[in-house]
Write a structure and sequence with these properties.
Layout: H1 15-22, H2 26-47, E1 53-55, E2 57-60, E3 66-79, E4 84-88, E5 95-96, E6 101-106, H3 119-134, H4 143-158, E7 167-168, E8 174-179, E9 182-187, E10 191-194, E11 196-197, E12 221-222, E13 228-229, E14 234-249, H5 252-257, E15 263-268, E16 274-284, E17 287-294, H6 298-301, E18 306-312, E19 317-322, E20 327-335, E21 340-341, E22 347-355, E23 361-366, E24 370-373, E25 377-380, E26 400-402, E27 409-411, E28 415-423, E29 430-433, E30 436-439, E31 443-446, E32 459-461
Antiparallel strand pairs: 1-32, 2-19, 3-14, 3-18, 4-6, 4-13, 5-10, 6-9, 7-8, 8-9, 10-14, 11-12, 14-17, 15-16, 15-18, 16-17, 19-31, 20-25, 20-28, 21-22, 22-23, 22-26, 24-25, 26-27, 28-29, 30-31
Helix pairs in contact: 3-4
Protein backbone atom coordinates (compact mmCIF):
# COMPACT_ATOMS: atom_id res chain seq x y z
CA UNK A 1 0.00 0.00 0.00
CA UNK A 2 1.32 3.50 -0.75
CA UNK A 3 2.48 5.47 2.22
CA UNK A 4 0.33 8.42 3.15
CA UNK A 5 1.84 11.79 2.33
CA UNK A 6 3.07 13.80 5.24
CA UNK A 7 1.54 17.20 5.52
CA UNK A 8 3.69 20.20 6.34
CA UNK A 9 3.26 21.58 9.79
CA UNK A 10 1.17 24.65 9.97
CA UNK A 11 2.97 27.79 11.07
CA UNK A 12 0.97 30.34 12.88
CA UNK A 13 2.23 33.96 12.60
CA UNK A 14 0.66 36.32 14.99
CA UNK A 15 0.35 40.07 14.65
CA UNK A 16 2.88 40.41 17.44
CA UNK A 17 5.46 38.43 15.42
CA UNK A 18 4.95 40.64 12.36
CA UNK A 19 5.54 43.75 14.43
CA UNK A 20 8.82 42.29 15.70
CA UNK A 21 9.91 41.46 12.13
CA UNK A 22 9.38 44.94 10.78
CA UNK A 23 10.45 46.89 13.83
CA UNK A 24 13.38 49.20 12.90
CA UNK A 25 16.23 49.99 15.26
CA UNK A 26 19.35 52.22 14.97
CA UNK A 27 21.52 49.28 13.89
CA UNK A 28 19.22 48.43 11.01
CA UNK A 29 19.11 52.06 9.87
CA UNK A 30 22.91 52.44 9.91
CA UNK A 31 23.38 49.16 8.04
CA UNK A 32 20.88 50.27 5.41
CA UNK A 33 22.61 53.62 4.92
CA UNK A 34 26.02 51.93 4.63
CA UNK A 35 24.69 49.42 2.11
CA UNK A 36 23.13 52.18 0.02
CA UNK A 37 26.40 54.19 0.12
CA UNK A 38 28.47 51.21 -1.05
CA UNK A 39 25.94 50.53 -3.79
CA UNK A 40 26.20 54.11 -5.06
CA UNK A 41 30.00 53.96 -4.98
CA UNK A 42 29.95 50.74 -6.96
CA UNK A 43 27.62 52.18 -9.60
CA UNK A 44 29.69 55.36 -9.77
CA UNK A 45 32.89 53.35 -10.21
CA UNK A 46 31.37 51.22 -12.97
CA UNK A 47 30.09 54.24 -14.90
CA UNK A 48 33.09 56.57 -14.39
CA UNK A 49 36.13 57.05 -16.63
CA UNK A 50 39.26 55.14 -15.69
CA UNK A 51 42.68 56.35 -16.69
CA UNK A 52 46.14 56.96 -15.28
CA UNK A 53 46.83 60.04 -13.20
CA UNK A 54 50.07 61.95 -12.85
CA UNK A 55 51.29 63.77 -9.74
CA UNK A 56 52.73 67.19 -10.54
CA UNK A 57 56.34 67.59 -9.39
CA UNK A 58 58.64 70.58 -9.19
CA UNK A 59 62.11 70.95 -10.66
CA UNK A 60 64.08 71.36 -13.90
CA UNK A 61 63.09 69.75 -17.17
CA UNK A 62 66.06 67.40 -17.12
CA UNK A 63 68.87 66.50 -14.76
CA UNK A 64 72.16 68.32 -15.16
CA UNK A 65 74.98 66.21 -16.55
CA UNK A 66 77.66 64.85 -14.22
CA UNK A 67 81.39 64.95 -14.97
CA UNK A 68 84.68 64.10 -13.31
CA UNK A 69 87.15 66.95 -13.66
CA UNK A 70 90.95 66.98 -13.44
CA UNK A 71 92.30 69.91 -11.40
CA UNK A 72 95.44 71.74 -12.48
CA UNK A 73 96.96 74.55 -10.42
CA UNK A 74 100.18 76.41 -9.59
CA UNK A 75 102.09 74.23 -7.08
CA UNK A 76 105.63 73.42 -6.05
CA UNK A 77 107.11 70.44 -4.24
CA UNK A 78 109.31 71.73 -1.39
CA UNK A 79 112.33 69.59 -0.54
CA UNK A 80 114.50 69.16 2.54
CA UNK A 81 117.54 71.43 2.77
CA UNK A 82 119.42 68.97 4.99
CA UNK A 83 119.26 65.50 6.48
CA UNK A 84 117.13 65.03 9.57
CA UNK A 85 113.87 64.12 11.21
CA UNK A 86 110.86 66.18 10.16
CA UNK A 87 108.64 68.10 12.56
CA UNK A 88 105.57 69.55 10.80
CA UNK A 89 104.31 73.00 11.77
CA UNK A 90 101.61 73.75 9.17
CA UNK A 91 98.16 72.22 9.04
CA UNK A 92 97.44 70.33 5.83
CA UNK A 93 94.91 72.00 3.57
CA UNK A 94 95.27 75.35 5.33
CA UNK A 95 96.84 78.51 4.02
CA UNK A 96 100.24 79.55 5.30
CA UNK A 97 101.45 83.13 5.06
CA UNK A 98 104.74 84.20 3.56
CA UNK A 99 107.62 83.73 6.05
CA UNK A 100 105.58 81.12 7.94
CA UNK A 101 107.24 78.02 9.38
CA UNK A 102 106.25 74.94 7.38
CA UNK A 103 108.49 72.29 8.99
CA UNK A 104 111.68 71.78 10.96
CA UNK A 105 114.58 69.35 10.62
CA UNK A 106 116.55 67.96 13.56
CA UNK A 107 119.29 65.41 13.98
CA UNK A 108 117.33 63.62 16.70
CA UNK A 109 113.67 62.61 16.85
CA UNK A 110 113.30 63.92 20.41
CA UNK A 111 113.92 67.66 20.71
CA UNK A 112 115.17 69.30 23.91
CA UNK A 113 114.49 72.87 22.87
CA UNK A 114 111.70 74.95 24.40
CA UNK A 115 110.02 78.27 23.78
CA UNK A 116 108.59 80.77 26.28
CA UNK A 117 105.19 82.36 25.68
CA UNK A 118 103.54 85.29 27.47
CA UNK A 119 100.03 85.11 28.96
CA UNK A 120 98.36 86.68 25.92
CA UNK A 121 99.86 84.10 23.56
CA UNK A 122 98.96 81.28 25.95
CA UNK A 123 95.39 82.53 25.99
CA UNK A 124 95.27 82.40 22.18
CA UNK A 125 96.63 78.84 22.23
CA UNK A 126 93.99 77.76 24.76
CA UNK A 127 91.27 79.36 22.62
CA UNK A 128 92.44 77.43 19.54
CA UNK A 129 92.48 74.17 21.49
CA UNK A 130 88.99 74.85 22.85
CA UNK A 131 87.61 75.58 19.37
CA UNK A 132 89.16 72.42 17.97
CA UNK A 133 87.76 70.32 20.83
CA UNK A 134 84.28 71.79 20.32
CA UNK A 135 84.18 70.91 16.62
CA UNK A 136 86.06 67.59 16.84
CA UNK A 137 84.57 64.68 14.89
CA UNK A 138 85.81 61.19 15.97
CA UNK A 139 85.07 59.94 12.45
CA UNK A 140 87.77 62.30 11.17
CA UNK A 141 90.53 61.48 13.64
CA UNK A 142 93.29 62.41 11.19
CA UNK A 143 92.39 66.06 11.76
CA UNK A 144 94.01 65.69 15.19
CA UNK A 145 97.45 65.32 13.63
CA UNK A 146 96.89 68.26 11.33
CA UNK A 147 95.87 70.37 14.31
CA UNK A 148 98.97 69.23 16.18
CA UNK A 149 101.20 70.51 13.36
CA UNK A 150 99.30 73.75 13.14
CA UNK A 151 99.49 74.32 16.89
CA UNK A 152 103.23 73.68 16.94
CA UNK A 153 103.67 76.21 14.15
CA UNK A 154 101.56 78.78 15.98
CA UNK A 155 103.67 78.34 19.12
CA UNK A 156 106.77 79.08 17.08
CA UNK A 157 105.09 82.16 15.61
CA UNK A 158 104.09 83.46 19.04
CA UNK A 159 107.63 82.78 20.30
CA UNK A 160 109.00 85.14 17.67
CA UNK A 161 110.81 82.61 15.51
CA UNK A 162 109.47 84.29 12.38
CA UNK A 163 111.18 87.52 13.34
CA UNK A 164 114.66 86.00 13.11
CA UNK A 165 116.81 86.55 10.07
CA UNK A 166 116.34 84.06 7.27
CA UNK A 167 118.31 82.88 4.32
CA UNK A 168 116.62 82.16 1.00
CA UNK A 169 116.85 78.60 -0.30
CA UNK A 170 118.04 77.77 -3.77
CA UNK A 171 114.57 77.22 -5.28
CA UNK A 172 113.18 80.51 -3.96
CA UNK A 173 110.14 78.93 -2.30
CA UNK A 174 111.49 78.48 1.24
CA UNK A 175 114.02 79.83 3.69
CA UNK A 176 115.80 78.23 6.65
CA UNK A 177 116.71 79.33 10.16
CA UNK A 178 118.32 77.51 13.09
CA UNK A 179 116.47 77.50 16.41
CA UNK A 180 115.87 75.11 19.29
CA UNK A 181 118.10 72.48 17.69
CA UNK A 182 116.17 72.53 14.45
CA UNK A 183 116.60 73.85 10.97
CA UNK A 184 113.25 75.54 10.31
CA UNK A 185 111.97 75.82 6.76
CA UNK A 186 109.97 78.98 6.11
CA UNK A 187 107.94 79.93 3.03
CA UNK A 188 108.71 83.02 0.97
CA UNK A 189 105.19 83.23 -0.48
CA UNK A 190 101.61 82.60 0.59
CA UNK A 191 100.21 79.19 -0.23
CA UNK A 192 98.22 76.13 0.75
CA UNK A 193 100.17 73.29 2.36
CA UNK A 194 99.67 69.68 1.24
CA UNK A 195 101.63 66.74 2.66
CA UNK A 196 101.38 64.70 -0.52
CA UNK A 197 102.49 64.67 -4.16
CA UNK A 198 101.13 62.92 -7.25
CA UNK A 199 103.30 63.96 -10.19
CA UNK A 200 100.79 66.50 -11.55
CA UNK A 201 102.47 69.44 -9.84
CA UNK A 202 104.13 70.70 -13.04
CA UNK A 203 101.24 69.84 -15.35
CA UNK A 204 99.83 72.60 -17.55
CA UNK A 205 97.24 72.47 -20.31
CA UNK A 206 99.99 72.10 -22.91
CA UNK A 207 101.59 69.18 -21.04
CA UNK A 208 98.42 67.19 -20.37
CA UNK A 209 97.71 63.94 -22.21
CA UNK A 210 94.55 61.85 -22.50
CA UNK A 211 96.08 59.18 -20.24
CA UNK A 212 96.34 61.73 -17.41
CA UNK A 213 92.54 61.51 -17.01
CA UNK A 214 92.65 57.79 -16.16
CA UNK A 215 91.78 57.59 -12.46
CA UNK A 216 92.60 53.87 -12.32
CA UNK A 217 96.29 54.60 -12.81
CA UNK A 218 96.34 57.63 -10.50
CA UNK A 219 98.65 57.43 -7.48
CA UNK A 220 99.23 59.86 -4.63
CA UNK A 221 102.27 59.65 -2.37
CA UNK A 222 101.91 60.56 1.31
CA UNK A 223 104.92 62.68 2.33
CA UNK A 224 104.36 62.65 6.11
CA UNK A 225 106.94 60.38 7.69
CA UNK A 226 108.59 59.67 11.02
CA UNK A 227 111.72 58.39 9.28
CA UNK A 228 114.84 60.44 8.69
CA UNK A 229 114.81 62.29 5.37
CA UNK A 230 117.78 63.18 3.22
CA UNK A 231 118.68 66.41 1.54
CA UNK A 232 116.52 66.84 -1.55
CA UNK A 233 113.74 64.54 -0.38
CA UNK A 234 110.24 66.02 -0.90
CA UNK A 235 108.60 67.18 2.34
CA UNK A 236 105.40 68.97 1.28
CA UNK A 237 103.63 70.60 -1.66
CA UNK A 238 102.79 74.31 -1.66
CA UNK A 239 99.92 75.55 -3.84
CA UNK A 240 100.96 79.11 -4.64
CA UNK A 241 98.03 80.60 -6.60
CA UNK A 242 94.30 80.84 -5.92
CA UNK A 243 93.58 80.56 -9.65
CA UNK A 244 92.95 77.02 -10.82
CA UNK A 245 91.23 75.04 -13.57
CA UNK A 246 89.13 71.91 -14.04
CA UNK A 247 89.25 69.92 -17.27
CA UNK A 248 86.38 67.58 -18.19
CA UNK A 249 86.17 65.19 -21.17
CA UNK A 250 83.35 66.00 -23.61
CA UNK A 251 81.54 63.98 -26.25
CA UNK A 252 80.86 65.63 -29.62
CA UNK A 253 77.23 66.16 -28.60
CA UNK A 254 78.18 67.74 -25.27
CA UNK A 255 80.75 69.97 -26.95
CA UNK A 256 78.16 71.13 -29.49
CA UNK A 257 75.71 72.02 -26.70
CA UNK A 258 78.37 74.06 -24.87
CA UNK A 259 79.96 75.73 -27.91
CA UNK A 260 78.56 79.21 -27.23
CA UNK A 261 79.09 79.04 -23.45
CA UNK A 262 81.53 81.55 -21.95
CA UNK A 263 80.68 81.19 -18.26
CA UNK A 264 79.10 78.28 -16.46
CA UNK A 265 77.90 77.41 -12.97
CA UNK A 266 79.47 74.33 -11.39
CA UNK A 267 78.12 72.35 -8.44
CA UNK A 268 80.75 70.37 -6.54
CA UNK A 269 79.41 67.02 -5.32
CA UNK A 270 81.97 66.90 -2.52
CA UNK A 271 80.26 69.61 -0.47
CA UNK A 272 77.29 70.78 -2.55
CA UNK A 273 78.82 74.24 -3.11
CA UNK A 274 78.30 76.05 -6.43
CA UNK A 275 80.65 78.44 -8.18
CA UNK A 276 80.80 80.34 -11.46
CA UNK A 277 83.74 79.79 -13.80
CA UNK A 278 84.95 80.83 -17.23
CA UNK A 279 84.40 78.11 -19.84
CA UNK A 280 86.27 77.17 -23.00
CA UNK A 281 86.68 74.05 -25.15
CA UNK A 282 90.22 72.73 -25.62
CA UNK A 283 91.74 69.80 -27.51
CA UNK A 284 94.05 67.25 -25.90
CA UNK A 285 95.39 64.41 -28.06
CA UNK A 286 92.69 65.17 -30.62
CA UNK A 287 89.84 64.87 -28.10
CA UNK A 288 87.61 67.70 -26.84
CA UNK A 289 87.75 68.82 -23.22
CA UNK A 290 85.91 71.53 -21.34
CA UNK A 291 88.18 73.87 -19.39
CA UNK A 292 86.61 75.72 -16.46
CA UNK A 293 88.75 78.46 -14.89
CA UNK A 294 88.15 79.64 -11.31
CA UNK A 295 89.73 82.46 -9.34
CA UNK A 296 88.59 81.35 -5.87
CA UNK A 297 87.48 78.33 -3.87
CA UNK A 298 90.70 76.37 -4.29
CA UNK A 299 91.29 75.89 -0.55
CA UNK A 300 88.18 73.67 -0.33
CA UNK A 301 89.48 71.27 -2.99
CA UNK A 302 93.26 71.65 -2.84
CA UNK A 303 93.74 68.05 -1.68
CA UNK A 304 91.67 66.63 -4.58
CA UNK A 305 93.10 65.99 -8.02
CA UNK A 306 89.84 64.57 -9.41
CA UNK A 307 86.50 66.19 -8.57
CA UNK A 308 82.97 65.03 -9.35
CA UNK A 309 80.96 68.01 -10.57
CA UNK A 310 77.59 68.91 -12.04
CA UNK A 311 77.30 71.55 -14.76
CA UNK A 312 74.24 73.61 -13.90
CA UNK A 313 72.94 74.18 -17.42
CA UNK A 314 69.25 73.40 -16.87
CA UNK A 315 68.30 76.56 -15.02
CA UNK A 316 64.62 76.65 -16.00
CA UNK A 317 62.59 75.28 -13.11
CA UNK A 318 58.87 75.02 -12.49
CA UNK A 319 56.11 72.43 -12.39
CA UNK A 320 56.75 69.35 -14.52
CA UNK A 321 53.85 67.83 -16.50
CA UNK A 322 53.68 65.31 -19.40
CA UNK A 323 52.98 66.74 -22.84
CA UNK A 324 50.15 64.23 -23.23
CA UNK A 325 48.30 65.93 -20.36
CA UNK A 326 48.19 69.33 -22.08
CA UNK A 327 45.04 70.45 -23.91
CA UNK A 328 43.40 73.74 -24.92
CA UNK A 329 40.10 75.36 -23.98
CA UNK A 330 38.28 78.36 -25.45
CA UNK A 331 37.48 81.37 -23.30
CA UNK A 332 35.72 84.65 -23.93
CA UNK A 333 38.09 87.57 -24.33
CA UNK A 334 37.09 91.11 -23.34
CA UNK A 335 39.21 94.24 -23.91
CA UNK A 336 40.75 95.49 -20.68
CA UNK A 337 39.58 99.07 -21.17
CA UNK A 338 35.96 97.88 -20.71
CA UNK A 339 36.68 96.69 -17.17
CA UNK A 340 35.99 98.53 -13.93
CA UNK A 341 39.19 98.84 -11.86
CA UNK A 342 39.99 100.10 -8.37
CA UNK A 343 42.40 102.91 -7.45
CA UNK A 344 45.39 100.59 -7.85
CA UNK A 345 44.26 99.50 -11.32
CA UNK A 346 43.22 96.01 -10.19
CA UNK A 347 40.34 94.36 -12.03
CA UNK A 348 36.92 94.57 -10.35
CA UNK A 349 34.26 93.68 -12.96
CA UNK A 350 32.01 94.97 -15.78
CA UNK A 351 28.84 96.96 -16.27
CA UNK A 352 26.53 94.46 -17.98
CA UNK A 353 23.73 96.02 -20.07
CA UNK A 354 20.35 94.48 -19.28
CA UNK A 355 16.90 94.99 -20.79
CA UNK A 356 13.68 94.71 -18.80
CA UNK A 357 10.40 93.19 -20.08
CA UNK A 358 9.23 96.71 -20.82
CA UNK A 359 12.27 97.23 -23.10
CA UNK A 360 14.05 99.63 -20.76
CA UNK A 361 17.86 99.36 -20.63
CA UNK A 362 19.92 99.45 -17.43
CA UNK A 363 23.29 98.25 -16.20
CA UNK A 364 24.21 95.63 -13.66
CA UNK A 365 27.66 95.15 -12.18
CA UNK A 366 29.10 91.63 -12.67
CA UNK A 367 32.47 90.23 -11.70
CA UNK A 368 33.29 87.06 -13.68
CA UNK A 369 36.36 85.07 -12.61
CA UNK A 370 39.53 85.87 -14.58
CA UNK A 371 41.40 82.87 -15.95
CA UNK A 372 44.15 84.86 -17.61
CA UNK A 373 45.10 88.34 -18.78
CA UNK A 374 47.34 89.77 -21.46
CA UNK A 375 48.32 93.34 -22.21
CA UNK A 376 45.00 93.89 -24.00
CA UNK A 377 42.47 91.25 -22.90
CA UNK A 378 40.92 89.43 -19.96
CA UNK A 379 39.94 85.76 -20.38
CA UNK A 380 36.68 84.45 -18.86
CA UNK A 381 34.95 81.08 -18.80
CA UNK A 382 32.13 80.74 -21.32
CA UNK A 383 28.61 80.70 -19.81
CA UNK A 384 26.05 78.14 -20.99
CA UNK A 385 23.06 79.46 -22.96
CA UNK A 386 20.86 76.58 -21.76
CA UNK A 387 20.93 77.68 -18.16
CA UNK A 388 23.87 75.66 -16.84
CA UNK A 389 26.60 77.68 -15.23
CA UNK A 390 24.03 80.46 -14.81
CA UNK A 391 25.72 82.42 -12.06
CA UNK A 392 25.13 86.15 -12.16
CA UNK A 393 28.91 86.57 -12.52
CA UNK A 394 29.19 84.62 -15.79
CA UNK A 395 29.32 86.25 -19.21
CA UNK A 396 27.50 84.67 -22.13
CA UNK A 397 27.71 85.10 -25.87
CA UNK A 398 25.72 88.12 -26.96
CA UNK A 399 25.97 89.95 -23.61
CA UNK A 400 26.79 93.62 -23.97
CA UNK A 401 29.05 95.44 -21.54
CA UNK A 402 29.48 99.18 -21.20
CA UNK A 403 32.82 100.96 -21.25
CA UNK A 404 33.44 103.03 -18.09
CA UNK A 405 32.65 106.77 -18.54
CA UNK A 406 31.56 106.12 -22.11
CA UNK A 407 28.59 105.00 -24.17
CA UNK A 408 30.72 102.46 -26.08
CA UNK A 409 29.51 98.89 -25.90
CA UNK A 410 31.27 95.57 -26.42
CA UNK A 411 29.28 92.48 -27.36
CA UNK A 412 30.74 89.31 -25.90
CA UNK A 413 31.55 86.74 -28.55
CA UNK A 414 35.23 86.76 -29.46
CA UNK A 415 37.17 83.86 -27.98
CA UNK A 416 40.75 82.89 -27.30
CA UNK A 417 42.31 79.54 -26.41
CA UNK A 418 44.33 78.83 -23.27
CA UNK A 419 46.55 75.84 -22.63
CA UNK A 420 45.89 73.74 -19.56
CA UNK A 421 45.44 70.32 -18.01
CA UNK A 422 42.62 68.48 -16.29
CA UNK A 423 43.06 68.44 -12.51
CA UNK A 424 41.35 65.50 -10.77
CA UNK A 425 42.05 66.20 -7.08
CA UNK A 426 38.33 66.25 -6.20
CA UNK A 427 37.34 63.13 -8.14
CA UNK A 428 36.17 64.95 -11.25
CA UNK A 429 38.03 66.70 -14.07
CA UNK A 430 38.55 70.47 -13.77
CA UNK A 431 40.46 72.56 -16.31
CA UNK A 432 43.54 74.30 -14.91
CA UNK A 433 45.43 76.86 -16.94
CA UNK A 434 49.21 76.51 -17.49
CA UNK A 435 51.96 78.77 -18.83
CA UNK A 436 54.76 76.90 -20.64
CA UNK A 437 58.38 77.75 -19.83
CA UNK A 438 60.24 74.95 -21.60
CA UNK A 439 59.64 71.47 -23.01
CA UNK A 440 61.33 68.43 -24.54
CA UNK A 441 59.98 65.36 -26.32
CA UNK A 442 58.03 64.07 -23.28
CA UNK A 443 57.60 66.74 -20.61
CA UNK A 444 57.00 70.44 -20.18
CA UNK A 445 57.97 72.87 -17.43
CA UNK A 446 55.14 75.27 -16.53
CA UNK A 447 55.20 78.38 -14.40
CA UNK A 448 54.39 78.19 -10.70
CA UNK A 449 51.72 80.37 -9.06
CA UNK A 450 49.73 80.85 -12.26
CA UNK A 451 46.28 82.31 -11.54
CA UNK A 452 43.75 79.47 -11.60
CA UNK A 453 46.67 77.15 -12.31
CA UNK A 454 48.44 74.13 -10.85
CA UNK A 455 50.23 73.53 -7.58
CA UNK A 456 52.88 71.04 -6.64
CA UNK A 457 51.51 67.54 -5.84
CA UNK A 458 48.25 68.13 -7.75
CA UNK A 459 46.94 65.06 -9.58
CA UNK A 460 46.15 65.53 -13.25
CA UNK A 461 44.93 63.30 -16.09
CA UNK A 462 48.05 61.93 -17.79
CA UNK A 463 46.27 61.87 -21.17
CA UNK A 464 44.02 64.86 -21.78
CA UNK A 465 42.21 63.23 -24.71
CA UNK A 466 40.86 60.50 -22.43
CA UNK A 467 38.76 62.83 -20.27
CA UNK A 468 36.35 65.75 -20.56
CA UNK A 469 35.78 68.55 -18.09
CA UNK A 470 33.40 67.57 -15.27
CA UNK A 471 33.91 63.85 -15.96
CA UNK A 472 33.75 61.77 -12.78
CA UNK A 473 37.07 59.99 -12.68
CA UNK A 474 36.76 57.88 -9.56
Amino acid sequence: MPKPKKSLPKVKISLKDLKKLFTLNIGTVMFGILFLYLLILGIRYMTSSHFESYQVTSGPLASNEMYTGLAIREEEVVKADADGYVTYYAREGNKINANGVAFGLSSDQALNGSETLDQEDLSKIRSQMSNFSYGFDPANFNSTYSFKYELAGEILNYAGVNDQSTADSDDGTAAVVNTAGQILSKTTTDGIVLYSMDGYEKKTLEKLKAEDFDQNSYEKEDLKTSQKVKTGDPVYTLVTDERWSLLIPLSDKQAAQLTDTDTIRVKFKKDGMTQMGSFSIEKIDGEKYGKIDFNKGLIRYASDRFLDIELVTNTQTGLKVPLSAITTKDFYIVPKDFAQVDESGAYQGFDLVTTSKDGESSTKFVSPTIYASTDDYYYFEMGDENGDNNSENVLREGDAILKPDSSDRYVVGDTGALEGVYCINQGYAVFRRIELIDQNEEYAIVRKDTTYGLSRYDHIAEKADSVKESDIVY
